[in-house]
Amino acid sequence: FNVVAIFTTRGFAAGIHEARVALEGCLAALEREANLDRARTILGGFSQGAMLSVELALASVERPFAGLAVL
Questions:
Q1: Mean pLDDT in order along the chain per 10 residues (71 residues)
Q2: Which of 59, 51, 49 is CA-nearest to residue 24?
């Protein structure tokens, strides 16, 4: 089965898109203001934070993160 399709086409959880947009905004600000390098950044999360981290990682194929650690 296609994990990416599950997360991007089924609306996996209510509010996940809005949360991802907010997190992307925070990360974009860190990239601009603190020279955050996505290629050296590991996303992490627990429970709903893990779900959000996975959602963001799967949506970031053009500019991937260094890794993903979730529980």
A1: 57 77 95 96 94 92 94 95
A2: 59
